[in-house]
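seq:
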Amino acid sequence: MDWTPKKPPSAKEIASRFRNEIAVGKYGPGQKLPGAKDLAKHLKVALMTVQSAYKELAEDGLVQGRQGSGTYVLDPKKGDPTAQDAAASMRDLQNRLMHVTSELSELRERVERLEAEHPRAVENQ
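struct:
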């Protein structure tokens, strides 16, 4: 556990970090993620925050919690994508979404600027 963030991370940030680590192979199929209690203590967050992050990873199909044992990276069935493939796809999707969000923000600013510069054109519509 070599992760020491400057501020306590959110569940989404924790999940994103593990998603990336799974994508690059730091955690392979069948490997156990750090225990939720120890990780929460290390990151100085509530146990529920780590549990929420692990739940998000499980919903993505990357890990599976085993009662009393821990959380493990899924070992895919033959022909199914690996957890690394799924995590890499999720990471790519996140990057694309960030790009689209940025483009939309820029477009909104341009429209607002045009509306401010040409208020009569907007009134006539």
